[in-house]
Amino acid sequence: MRRKVAPDSSDATGGEAGRQDLLQLSSAICNGEDLGPFVRKAFASGRPESLLHSLRHFARSKESEIEEVCKAHYQDFIRAVDDLRSLLSDVDSLKSALSDSNAALQSAAGPLLSSLDAYLEDRAVARNLSAALAASRLCARLLDLLARANAHLAADDLYLSLRAIDAVERDFLDAAPHPTIRRMLLRLIPAVRSHAERKIAKEFSDWMVQIRVASRHLGQIAIGRASAARQREEELRIKQRQAEEQSRLSLREANSSSIYSLEDDDDDDDDDLAAALAAAGGGGSTGSAVDGILRFDLTPLYRAYHIHQTLGLQDRFKKYYFENRKLQLTSDFQVSSMTPFLESHQTFFAQIAGFFIVEDRILRTGGGLISRSDVDALWETAIAKMVSVLEDQFSRMQTANHLLLIKDYVSLLGVTLQRYGYTVDPLLDVLSKHRDKYHDLLLSDCRLQVSEALAADKFEQMLMKKEYEYSMNVLSFQIQTSDIIPAFPYVAPFSSTVPDLCRIVRSFIEDSVSFMSHGGQFDFYPIVKKYLDRLLGVVLDGAILLLVESGGLGVSQAMQVAANMVVMERACDFFFRHAAHLSGIPFRIAERGKREFPLKKSRDAAEELLLGLLQAKIDDFLILTDTVSWMADDSPPNGNEYANEVIIYLETLVSAAQQILPIQVLRRVLHGVLTHVSEKIVGLFLSDSVKRFNANAVTGIDADLRLFESFADSQSHLFGDSEESGVNELKMALLEARQLVNLLMSNHPENFLNPVIREKSYNKLDYKKVVAISEKFRDSSDRLFSTFGTRGLKQNPKKKSIDALIKRLKDVS
């Protein structure tokens, strides 16, 4: 027990400040606060002893509290010690019991421990064996996958080999039982993928070479099918037009047979489509992307794309494919300067057509290998290049047939690619742009052919010995005048020039329609008609006009040319109907825009030439008028010699012309000849060589006129239903001479001054000519220009009347 310490009396005198510090310090210690501030304050104030004294005082105050607590629990401690001592004996007995139990346990557990050690050792061995078996099974699976990968590689089945390698990487790379195997896999997997990539790249490169050749054949087949389809459409359209025409003419039987033929054609089209669909279905079931219609194989491409998808390189392959196809297309644009474009254009366009047919198939079945925007970009490049090539080649061409051949193939190319959704308007625009050049070249060719045909013709009537010649030269151009087939041999009213010119014009129409058709313009008849008008009105009319004006034609040749022009007028009607027929418009529409005869200038020139030659021949006979006695004592009873010669020539002319010239032409020619005769007779009276004439000379001229009028009457059989008008028309040609002779033979010539009588009987006479001729008229008793021998005689009343007429006419003038 500790000794109680007495309190220090010096602390009581510490004053109020010391107690206050002690209370704060005690409070801080009781609360467990930091005493640092108190320590710093004590040292700062230089009185650490007071702090130390306070701490000691606090400790002594606490010791007393502790001592009080111990006193309070002293008895409990004593009882506890007693209890511990009472337990000591029990503990000793327990200890001895535990020692005996431990000895018994040790003796009994020794064999068990040795067995446990053996068990643990065996379990470790078993665990190792299980791990070895698991590793063996893993290696077996791994080797099986690798063997399958090798087998697939050997069988060139790259996709399955890559699937096996992916399975190895996914299931065995991280779970490899040994680092060596892991290193082997890390080396093997990239090697197999690299091998597959190289292998498929080589196959793709080979396919790129093969598809270029296949594309050309593919384009040729596709364009050939388009050509065959166009031909079937043309045949169908022809039959439809025939059916429409027959229906319009109400020919029921012909209409029915035409309808049956149209239905048969429809069946043929259905069969062709069914065969195409069956061929297409044969290649699509295996998923090999083989087009059964056009026979091109896209399997290598799709395999390459699939392999790259498996490798995760599809985007790179898409770009690689697009760039290579673009380069391939660019190389297809190369036009060889060593080969004429006419020979290489089909290969050029077929290659491009095949290229875009393949691209369309890949776009629709390639699973996103190429996009629509990529195909459109390639097509824009291609069509721009084709337009450039066509512009360049067309600008160099100087042969219409060459331009037509290329145009036809380009139009077929357009039809082919339009079926696959490509826009070909720029190509059609190029064809339309060179329409004028083509027709200018065609007109130039026709001009040369027309010149050669005219130069080769002898202008003799054409002889046809067989019916096929008649059909080929007459019926095929619808220039016959009757539907009855003539007897053979048949002498045509035209020369060989007519069918030759008809063939030239028909060929021009067909070539023009061929160029205009299938060019994106449906109603092209006005354009064809415009160029046909140029051919007829400029080329053909100009060539015939040049022939007529050349001056190398005789009467028979000029007559044949005039006859040819009448036949050509019927042929021109056929030309416009043929153009309308080929253009696909009804004939009644073509008839609405019918113009006047386009060869009118050459026709009129031919008739003028014939008339001029005949007039020149008449002038040769009129030289015989020098033998006419103008102061004869008696009038010739049968007319003058020149009139008889002219009548004989005219009769011979009419006899020959009836076999050649049509009635209307012959009428115009005879009218012109007789008009010329009339003018020549009037000219005889006005001639300076005739100083004077008497009534006997006028009577002789009257006899001549009666001969000519009788000739006109004899030609009445030439005018059919209009005999009277025809005869009157021919007589009207002699009217001026007849009125002059009637005036000179009239007993009252002063009646010419009466307007009513002059209009009725002398309306063709010119009063100046009447004055000049009347001054030359002398009575038979007159001598030269005086009346000295008859001064005492009474003047003739007729002479007196004529003198009065002359005086009155001179006054009027």
UniProtKB/TrEMBL annotation:
The Exocyst complex subunit EXOC6/Sec15 C-terminal domain, residue ranges: 426-776
Boundaries of each Exocyst complex component EXOC6/Sec15 N-terminal domain copy? Answer: 55-223
Q: Which UniProt keywords apply?
A: Cytoplasm, Exocytosis, Transport
Q: Which Gene3D superfamilies match?
A: Dsl1p vesicle tethering complex, Tip20p subunit, domain D, Exocyst complex subunit Sec15 C-terminal domain, N-terminal subdomain
Q: Is Repressor found in the keyword set?
A: no
Offer a single GO CC term for the protein: exocyst
An example GO biological process term is: Golgi to plasma membrane transport
Query: Where is it localised?
Result: Cytoplasm, Cytosol
Where would you say this protein principally sits, based on its record? Answer: cytoplasm
Functionally, this protein is described as follows:
Component of the exocyst complex involved in the docking of exocytic vesicles with fusion sites on the plasma membrane during regulated or polarized secretion. Involved in polarized cell growth and organ morphogenesis. During cytokinesis, involved in cell plate initiation, cell plate maturation and formation of new primary cell wall.
Q: Which family does it belong to?
A: Belongs to the SEC15 family.
The name this protein goes by in its record = Exocyst complex component
Q: Which organism is it from?
A: Phoenix dactylifera (Date palm)
Instruction: Provide the gene name from the record.
Output: LOC103719713
